[in-house]
Input
Amino acid sequence: MIGTDVTKAANLLSQGKLVAIPTETVYGLAANGLNPEAIAEIYRVKNRPNFNPLILHVPHIEAAKKYVTHFPIEAEKLAHHFWPGSLSILLPKSAIVPDIITAGSSHVVLRIPNHPITLNLLNQIDFPLAAPSANISNTVSPTSAKHVDEGFSNQIEYILDGGNSTIGIESTIVSIENGNVQILREGGISQEFIAQKTGFNISSEPTKTIQTPGQLKKHYSTQKPLYLVESIIDFLKENPKKNCSVLYYEYHDYPSEHTYYLSENYNLSEIANRLFTTMRLADKDASDCIIIENIKQEGIGRAISDRLNRAKSNLE
Output
């Protein structure tokens, strides 16, 4: 059932049920973050690997501090600038946080979402919400209540409708080690913007161990093959028999039968906002595959590139 009743959502969550919630990034599949049985149900319904951690969502900084052993000055500064917002912070967890959330890790990822309905919900309950994206694992993330309903049908009791997500890709995740801030997952807030607001030197070297969501090599997959190419025009010329949907970053004078525009003029924020929705549309049309070019490696473009590289198929 889709609805806007925050009190109903709060009651269901208090009973250990799952509820899909809106955020500015994507929709989340939420459960009581202190209830291991409810959290286990997230993994079951999503078919999510149990080694893939979850993010804990809280209503304010004071609440966040209850679930960590240490909230360093760097985290204070990041939270001041970006909470509520699409930044998640990896910190050492307190004993109250169930190990199932962190996949056994000693650290937990925390975030305050920037969505009025979900903030209202978080302030009505006395527990945090564990909430990965509200979709079957390894599929395209949902940015509307309708997307959630299409993926889960009758598997969850309630979808809290908050309209379309305004950012459209998941949060940026950072860690703090010895005063150094490192990006573990590119997302809705760019490396440049974090540095600009905080003055921190931000590193983004990949880690080998899975510490946070969004680090699996294959993720965000469409049902039909998605090819990431250097040039759409060249690809279509070289593969005239392929019936592909084409995703352009701006208006183009080389349309194909199934053409989608992610922006009018290569606006990276527009592209991020429309990416998952457009991937879903292309996945449902009469084409056999989806093609999209590599994107500029700047700002939120790095997050878009990350999602596409995890979604792509190998060219035959």
